[in-house]
Amino acid sequence: MTTTAQYKSKLLARRAELVERSEEVESELDAHNSKDWEELAVERETDEVLEGLGNNAAAEIIRIDAALKRIEEGQFGFCVKCDDQISAERLELLPYTPFCRNCAT
For the segment 42-54, what is each residue's pLDDT rounded down to a tens digit? Predict the structure, then answer.
């Protein structure tokens, strides 16, 4: 069984990974400055994909930060909606989840 400290470690590692990825996305977005119209079109398409990745990373960071706060408050592993315990299987798959299986659906 995974302990709260182990979940915290996993969450912090994932957060660091996402922050690094977000920084790479920002650098890539800033690097485009082509003058050719065709290249600009391709770059814009690429930028849209990168922006989507950046937005997804930012959303996951927010969920991770909320989970870390629940750990600090001693509420981690309990559903924020019904206060039931979240199953270990669910936490293994989604360690930042605030909901039990029943409330998530």
Answer: 666 666 666 777 7
